[in-house]
Design goal:
disordered N terminus
Length: 208
């Protein structure tokens, strides 16, 4: 079932890791390059600049809905992996203020969707490799500590929890995404949406 608390305990070492990568985390381009060890290609840079921004040091999305249409083999899957890691690490959209403990314990649930379960897991595969530092796109050593991300089952599906309690599920939209009805989400990403036969009804009746 869903874990109600963060399995990664806050301690001095965790704080040191967060301090190490903190200044490089707000800007998604810097996060990809200096934390994850990935040089974005021009298409990915245009995508992220159109979707993400940093205002007064706070990372955020430019709008509630971002539509990205990309050609094959342009780096869309790894781009989604980077975006999910960036958004969950920063809890984008959750006000931090001066109360760090309140921010850290605030609920943050992200759903990554695709028409089939295996398609959804493609992004999870990239995330695992990035965190492990074994992804082919990592041209330099990643400084993202593997201990900040725990991979585990969530409602019988593979997913992961970040150091700050952010939780990510990877789900199919099979049966018109009825399993997601009534859920609250801080963020939703949808891959291969063009192959979903009931896309309009899923977006209008379930996701919005």
């Amino acid at each position: 079932g869903i874990r109600e608390s963060n399995p990664l305990k806050a301690n001095r070492q965790t704080a040191e890791w967060i301090e190490l990568i903190g200044p490089k985390s707000a800007d998604i381009e810097v996060f990809a390059r200096d934390v994850l060890g990935i040089d974005l290609n021009p298409a990915q840079i245009r995508w992220f600049r159109s979707a993400c921004e940093v205002v007064d040091g706070v990372p955020r999305f430019r709008s509630k809905i971002n539509l990205h249409v990309a050609a094959n083999q342009i780096g869309k899957t790894i781009g989604l992996a980077i975006l999910i890691l960036w958004a969950t690490h920063n809890k984008v959209g959750v006000a931090r203020g001066d109360d760090h403990q309140r921010w850290r314990t605030a609920a943050f649930q992200w759903f990554h969707l695709a028409p089939t379960q295996q398609q959804a897991y493609l992004v999870l595969r990239d995330i695992r490799q990035i965190v492990d530092g074994t992804h082919a796109a990592q041209r330099r050593k990643s400084v993202f500590p593997v201990q900040l991300c725990e991979f585990h089952k969530i409602e019988d599906y593979d997913g992961f929890t970040m150091w700050n309690g952010s939780m990510v599920q990877f789900r199919t939209t099979d049966e018109r995404a009825k399993a997601l009805q009534g859920r609250r989400a801080a963020g939703i990403s949808y891959d291969e949406a063009a192959f979903e036969s009931y896309l309009k009804s899923i977006v209008n009746e379930v996701l919005l």
